[in-house]
Amino acid sequence: MSQHPSFEAIKVALKQDKSGYVLTLNIHPDDLDDRIMRDFVGSRYVVVMARIDNDEQPLNREQFTDPAVRLAGMLCKDKDFQAFLVEIGDIFDANELEAADWLRNEFGVASRSELRGNEEAARKLNQIHEEFKKWKQKD
Fold first, then answer.
1. Is residue 27 within 8 Å of residue 9, measured between CB atoms?
2. Selection from 59, 55, 49, 52 nearest residue 14 by Cα
């Protein structure tokens, strides 16, 4: 047995109480180290967690830290941005799927994550964002 237990868990619930957040995890009985079971309630732990992807590998969260990737995702989900794209004639239906398809086509990428580190795309996306903000202020 390793010095420090490790196991896979599934997030079941998250709630907040007066002292902070309470994270509830589901751990398969075969994965739970007996030492954790014997520890008293209130024991403190250092926890290192990494979300895993479909290939059982740690998820690369760097894709979410790039400002252009983050902005692209936020804009595609924004109902007002979708309406803006409909009004200027770039999409037909105001929904996230059409907005994301438009964005990928506009920037010539297969995935919004391909915008990461692309300064030209970031500049163009910021320009589109500014046009959207001006359009939104007209209301």
1. yes
2. 49
Beta strand residue intervals within the chain, DSSP E: 9-17, 20-27
What are the residues facing 26 on neighbouring strands? 10
What integer pLDDT is reported at residue 64 of this predicted model?
A: 57
Distance, CA of 130 to CA of 84 (rounded, Å): 12
Reported as a pLDDT band with limits 50, 70 and 90, residue 54 is confident
Q: Is the dihedral of CA 121, 104, 115, 73 positive or negative?
A: positive
CA atoms within 13 A on the CB side of 33: 11
Q: What is the pLDDT of residue 2?
A: 56
- pLDDT, one tens digit per residue, over 103-126 is 999 998 888 888 888 888 889 999
- State how far the Cα of 115 lies from the Cα of 109, in Å rounded to an integer: 8
- Which one, of 19, 30, 16, 23, lies nearest residue 51 by Cα? 23
Identity at 50, one-letter amino acid code: A
